[in-house]
Amino acid sequence: MAFETILTEIDDHIGTIRLNRPDALNALNAQLLQELGKALASMDDNDKVRVIILTGSEKAFAAGADIKEMSDKSFVEMFGSDYFGPEVEAMLKVRKPIIAAVAGYALGGGCELAMMCDFIIAADNAKFGQPEINLGVIAGIGGTQRLTRFVGKSKSMEMHLTGRMMDADEAERSGLVTRVVPAKDLMADAQKTAAKIAEKSPLSVLAAKEAVNRAYETTLREGLLFERRLFHAMFATEDQTEGMQAFAEKRTPQFRGN
Ligand code: CAA
């Protein structure tokens, strides 16, 4: 598939997607989000891919939705086209894990895109923020909801109301990112993490992602039941037999995804 705003690569079960609009700090325009949706769907369907890394450049993961593309739009155009709605839905359909490897700016839609991934590894130069308030609007692809769940109401509210940025250390302290690494090591760290996930049973990886995400969608009791049923269902797989036999035999399991 030929794309103009992203670069894609598949190697050793890891699919990598790099946002690539350097002149606009990877601002998310409609074309980029459509291409990203297609690339993600194609990797989700591809048996060679077990885990996906989404990244940007050293200067910017993404500096937000493309302000220049949006600036002249009317309410009728935004609401009528459900601007960014279908693209966001496409991303939420992806069943394989997506790791966000974030260096530089992750602002507005860029921060929201990182939060839509399954977890975030941040470079030490990463800066997160929801500065839409400075443009006379508010976050539009999940910021008010997701940032609040990651970092709590007080910090999220302050960030949305002041538009200030959060550096990588604060993002780690607040639970927004899983860890911070030196910028030069970001991709190596993300690849190492992805490789660890790629070794596991692909079925348990899908189930774990579904179950953790359910924690955001339902009550604790329903979530616990969902988890328990998925756990039971894993006992219908050969990977469960293999994983437990390998443990007893003190060898590395060979998971086949069945
Ligand atoms: N949209 C369009 N173009 C953008 C952009 C954006 N979000 N962010 C940066 N650019 C462009 C700049 O216009 C500039 O282009 P030109 O060279 O053609 O002028 C180029 O990228 C480089 O940017 P700067 O010169 O501004 O770089 P800097 O290093 O001085 O500043 C920055 C970096 C602090 C990130 C600054 O670019 C900035 O504040 N960007 C906007 C951040 C923002 O407001 N994001 C929220 C967008 S709205 C949104 O995301 C809504 C939503 O939730 C869906």
UniProtKB/TrEMBL annotation:
Domain of life, per lineage: Bacteria
Gene3D superfamilies hit by this protein: 2-enoyl-CoA Hydratase, Chain A, domain 1, Lyase 2-enoyl-coa Hydratase, Chain A, domain 2
GO biological-process terms attached to the record: fatty acid beta-oxidation
UniProt cross-references to Pfam families, sorted A to Z: ECH_1 (PF00378)
Alphabetized GO MF terms: enoyl-CoA hydratase activity
EC number(s) stated in the UniProt entry for this protein: 4.2.1.17
Keywords, alphabetical: Fatty acid metabolism, Lipid metabolism, Lyase
Reaction(s) this enzyme catalyzes, per UniProt: a (3S)-3-hydroxyacyl-CoA = a (2E)-enoyl-CoA + H2O; a 4-saturated-(3S)-3-hydroxyacyl-CoA = a (3E)-enoyl-CoA + H2O
Family: Belongs to the enoyl-CoA hydratase/isomerase family.
Main function: Could possibly oxidize fatty acids using specific components.
UniProt protein name: enoyl-CoA hydratase
UniProt lineage: Bacteria, Pseudomonadati, Pseudomonadota, Alphaproteobacteria, Rhodobacterales
